């Protein structure tokens, strides 16, 4: 997976990973 950048939201405890391969698609990971 090509990860362009990751955004970590500490308040919700989630990390949004935006991939270059699927541009416009956001994968939300529950930490």
UniProtKB/TrEMBL annotation:
- Protein name per the record: Uncharacterized protein
Could you tell me which Gene3D superfamilies the record lists for this protein?
Histidine kinase-like ATPase, C-terminal domain
The superkingdom listed in its UniProt entry is: Bacteria
């Amino acid at each position: 997976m090509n990860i362009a950048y990751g955004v970590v939201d500490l308040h919700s405890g989630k990390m949004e990973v935006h991939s270059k391969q699927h541009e416009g698609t956001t994968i939300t990971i529950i930490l």
